[in-house]
Every structure is written in C-alpha cells, then in structure tokens.
Design goal:
Chains A, B: Keywords: DNA-binding, Transcription, Transcription regulation. Chains A, B: It comes from Streptomyces coelicoflavus. Chains A, B: Pfam families: TetR_N. Chains A, B: One of its GO terms (molecular function) is transcription cis-regulatory region binding. The structure is a homodimer. By secondary structure, chain A is mainly α. In chain A, 73% of the residues lie in helices and 0% in strands. In chain A, helix 5 packs antiparallel against helix 6, helix 6 runs parallel beside helix 9 and helix 8 runs antiparallel to helix 9. The termini of chain A are far apart. At the A-B interface, helix 8, helix 9 and helix 10 of A face helix 8, helix 9 and helix 10 of B. The structure holds a DNA duplex.
Chain lengths: 196, 196
DNA sequence: TTATTTAAAGCTATCCGTTAGTGTTACGGT
DNA sequence: ACCGTAACACTAACGGATAGCTTTAAATAA
C-alpha cells in the first residue's frame, strides 16, 4: 500500500482522460457541439464509450474540463486574503481575473459554443450554483467576517451573479465596475450581528 | 376567424393536457420521479408518447405545470405597482407571496420531490434564470427608475436569488427579512445615472 | 522471477428521454 | 356537405447514459 504518486497506471489514466478531453473539444469546435455524438468522440479518441463515461460524468462535462479550479480559486480568495483585508475587494479581484480569463481571445470560441448551446448553458448555470454553495461555506467559516449564514449565502450568490453577468455583458470590466459597488453595499447592509 | 374560446376542440385539448399533468404528478409522487418513465405516464394517461411531448417540452416540465405564472407575477409587480412606489418593497411583497405559496403544506411534497432530484433542481434553476431576464427587462423598461441596464439585470438576479435562497432556508420569511435589506442597499448603491 | 491481486479499459446489450416520419380522426369554418 | 387542419396515434429510431461481464496490464506479494 505504498503511496506511489506517479505510477505508470496513473499516468496512463491521466493520458487517456486528456486525450478524450482534447479530442472532444477539437471535434466540438470543428463540427459544432450538437453535431458531434459521444460515439464520435469515443471513436476518434480510440476508447470505448464506457471508458469515456468513466472519466467524465456527462457530455457537457467534456467542455468544462479546464474550468475545474474556478471553485478553488474563489474559496482561496476568501481564505488566503491578507489579514483584515475586506472581503468584497478580494472577491472582486478574483472575479475580475476569472472574467478576463474566460473572455480572452483564446477562450472565445469555447464560450461562443457554450452560449450557443442551451444544454451547455444550463450545465454552466448549475455548476456555478454549486460554486456559490462552496463560496458561501468559505465566507461563513471566517469568524472575522461575523455575518450570518444567510448573509454569507446571499453574498456568495451575488458574487457568482457578477461573474455570469459580466461574462455576458458587452463590456465585462465596466459591468464589474457597476455591479461590485452594489455587492459591497449589500454586504455592508448585512451588518455584523455581534462585533463587540 | 371568430375568437371561439370554448370550442370542443380546445376543451378537449385542455382536458388532455390536464389529464397528462395530473397523471404524471400522481405517479411521480406515488413512485418517485426517477422511477416513473415517460412511457408509464403516457400509458396511464392513455395517450401516445408523442402526444405527451406535444403538450410538454420535457419530462421535467410536467412537474412545473402550475408554476407558469411566476414570471408574469414578478413583472406585474414592477409594472403595476402604485405610482411612485419604490421598486424593492414591491418586489419584496411579491416574492414573499410566492415563497409562501410554494412552502405551503399542499405544495410541500412536490418541492420535496424537486429538491430530491438533480434533474428537477437543474431545470428549476434554469427557468429561474429566464425569469430573471424577464424581470430585468421590466425593470429596465421603467423610466421612472432611471437605472442602467446592468443595474436592472443585477437587481433582477438578486431578487431571484432571494426567492430560491428563502425557499431552501429553514425559516423562509426570516431569510427574506435578512436578504431584502441587502438588495435594497444594492439598489440604492446603483444610483440613478441622471435624475435632474 | 513468478504468481496474485486489482484498477483500467473494453464489449454487449439495454434503458430512457426525445424526435422524425407518417397516418388517421374529428372538429371548425365556409 | 365539403375541405382544411389541429390533435392525436403508431412505428421506429436517435443519442446520452448505464449495467454486467470479460480482458488487459500495472502493482504487489511470493
């Protein structure tokens, strides 16, 4: 039961996963998401359909492969911020970085594809909501903030809203400039139940 | 082209639709959403599967039959409010009524079923987002409010968040008491670009 | 080394939601 | 009475996803 980190097995598994993801994204961008079937992806990646689904939970998940650290980055923006740095600006910085990342030219075709597919949009929405839950937990867990759990959940949602609103806005950074003062005001209005 | 409201045809169509919805909801509550297939519902309602799908766009839509006026009620809360009544309290009243409606004992089993099914939760989330778009339009269309389109979209999202957060909270009304002051602060912070 | 265990991948067959194609019935307008 | 068409039915299939079982090959024990 030695803890071999880089056995051949795990490398091969990771390679298979990567090959599937790469193939899928390539085919999706070439022919369109709806025009490519799971069987096409599996055949082109030279794996069985069951293997594909042992690596990815659904067809949509193939597209959001890279997006995995979104949740981690947001929660770390809360937990790893400088001592006594206020919450909202820290979150704003991270959201700005994330929005820039997904509106960059390199990511544009992918997000264009997502926006064009109802199934992908729906999937994106639902993972964002799960991210909001994680963010809410991180906020609620910080005793220095001293807000109720409801306030934490609420602000977490608002921050996720900021991300998706900015992503869809014609000028994402200007949208954030407008939304975050609103979030800040909401956060202040939530008050600190006990701060003596 | 007379506007016959109660032709036999339309009555029969409505009856068929109602029978399908009733049958579906009954079977779902009896045996569980996942344990009942579309073919089961169609057989029990004595219609063809294709007929079922000509009345409802998806299996999930069968569950949200009643919930159709959600969007209309919210947008009307904006457009039909008393002259010069501020926006946020009007929205708060309506959200409170909607939350009470869906947390009432009669609706409890349905919402329990929804919360238990990932597919239904996802569907619910996505229709709420579409409702937010409609609400944003209603807000942006009111010249008396004088907020930017981004601010309108943002507040609309926040209001929808309030609904779903309250619905899931242990004490929904207390949650609204906490969330709406935050929304109000956000709305005030958005300011009125031109009000002279 | 050889043997054993176990994780990864494969194959087959199928379920289930959903849709296309094609009729058939019966209501409504003329 | 006639015709157009809306509602519904039937068959067949498509595409995503899964269950059950076998095969391959890496890790570990002997």
């Amino acid at each position: 039961m030695s803890v071999q980190q880089s056995g051949r097995r795990e490398r091969k598994k990771a390679a298979t996963r990567q090959k599937i993801a790469d193939t899928a994204l390539r085919l999706f961008l070439e022919r369109g998401y709806d025009a490519v079937g799971i069987r096409d992806v599996a055949a082109e990646a030279d794996v069985a359909v069951t293997t594909l689904f042992s690596h990815f939970a659904s067809k949509e998940a193939l597209v959001f492969e890279q997006d995995e650290d979104f949740e981690r980055r947001l929660t770390q923006a809360v937990t790893d911020r400088a001592p006594q740095e206020p919450l909202v600006p820290a979150l704003r910085r991270e959201i700005l970085a994330l929005v820039r990342h997904c509106t960059a030219d390199s990511a544009a075709p992918i997000w264009h594809m997502i926006d064009a597919s109802p199934a992908l949009r729906k999937y994106d929405d639902s993972i964002r909501l799960r991210h909001a839950d994680a963010l809410a937990q991180a906020i609620a867990a910080d005793p220095a903030l001293g807000r109720s759990e409801t306030a934490a959940r609420t602000i977490a949602r608002f921050v996720i809203d900021a991300y998706s609103l900015a992503r869809e806005a014609p000028d994402p950074e200007a949208a954030l400039d407008e939304i975050f003062p609103m979030i800040d005001a909401a956060w202040e209005a939530a008050g600190a139940p006990r701060h003596t």
